[in-house]
Amino acid sequence: MFKKVLLVAVSLMMIVNLTACSTATGGTKYKIGIMTGTAVQNEEELRAAEKMQKKYGDMVTLTTYPAKFTTETETTISNLAALAADKSVKALVIVQAVVGSAAAIDKVRATRPDMLIIAGAPGEDRDVMAGKADIVLQTNNIQRGVSIVQQAHKMGAKKFVHYSFARHMSNQDTVDRKNLMEKTCAELGMEFIFADAPDPTGEGGTAATQQFIMEDVPRKIKEHGKDTAFFGTNCSMQEPMIKQVIAGGAIYPVQCCPSPYHALPGALGISIPDDKKGDLAFAMAQITAKLKELGAEKRVSTWPVPVNMLYIEAGVEYAKAYLDKQTNGKNDPVVFEKLMKQCAGGPISLSTLKTDKGDYKNYYLFLSDYVDFSK
């Protein structure tokens, strides 16, 4: 399904500060707009955007989409359109490109057809999004259907619990990944268990989802045993899931959006000082020490790079390169790969999307290895 364009093994050398990106320069006559979620959905994306604003000052302008974006798509559309209404804004970076982003991009294109638009972690149909944004960034979700289960098996899992809900399971990528997880479990002799959870954009909001996870994970551990791995498709599930997995001695292979920053510090009670925010090496050292203290260093894992933060930082750096006429058009794979590697702090694995509807050279898929906290 996917056409490989690059494969380089990912090593733990990626655990460095993402400030490896190019340094700020003044005097620019353009702006780059960033849209992220609020701190309610995924705080690290918002902090990454704020970091880029701090780095480049007034050159970067920010907005957010609403926490209940599925029922407030008009707000998402109007917020992105408001960014584009500023004629000095020449590029937009959207992470996550949630439901409503495709329509929002259409709204922008109607008045600003030349706008460079980069969309990360899309929540809408992949073939649709490939035709909307100039560059789309996403983890290689299909192949993660294999790698996540393999990692769980490597960590000792005999069963695999997959939490999701109807909205997520209407996304073809999520369905394909789930099916591949189920197939991989069967190949490895593991039991696959699908579990329904409340949608955090529903009536009860994220609180209802988190409360359900807090209560259901212990039930599942009691029913299926400690050698059970847990995975959830939504960001708000991750912190309560990690807490209860560790408390019950079960297995947590990786987050839905892999990152050392995503839910791990909160679940482990780690407070990162202001002067250490963005210092990935510091965060990893704190996480490792806490997991070893709890005896969970062999039962919890993640990727060594904060993926959605990477999309924002590399997206801004690429937009800047494009606007400074340092790229060959809107989608220059050579420059894009270089900046992704630079912002990640090490080698990366990229491929482009190919479906039965198209071969999309602008739709980049990212895959990484896993951190072994016991070493």
Characterization of the model:
With 375 residues, the protein is α/β, with parallel strands linked by helices. The protein has two domains: 201 residues, Rossmann fold (3-Layer(aba) Sandwich), CATH 3.40.50; 152 residues, Rossmann fold, CATH 3.40.50. Helix content is 42%, strand content 17%. It contains twelve helices and eleven strands. The protein has an eight-stranded mixed sheet, sandwiched between helices. The chain has a three-stranded parallel sheet with strand order 8-7-9, sandwiched between helices. Helix 2 runs parallel beside helix 3, helix 5 packs parallel to helix 6 and helix 11 crosses helix 12. The N terminus is likely disordered.
Give the SSE string.
EEHEHEHEHEHEHEHEHHHHHEE
Please state the average pLDDT score.
Answer: 90
Number of domains: 2
Strand content: 15-25%
Give the overall shape, derived from the CA principal axes. globular
* Unreliable spans: 1-20, 22-26
- Strand tally: 11
Helix content: 40-55%
The number of helical elements comes to 12
Short descriptors:
375 residues, alpha/beta, Rossmann fold, 8-stranded mixed beta sheet, 3-stranded parallel beta sheet, 12 helices
Please describe the topology of this protein.
Elements (H helix, E strand, L loop, with lengths): L1 E3 L26 E6 L2 H18 L3 E5 L8 H13 L3 E7 L5 H11 L4 E5 L5 H5 L4 E5 L1 H14 L4 E6 L7 H16 L3 E6 L8 H20 L3 E5 L5 H11 L15 H5 L11 H14 L13 H17 L9 H12 L4 E7 L2 E10 L8
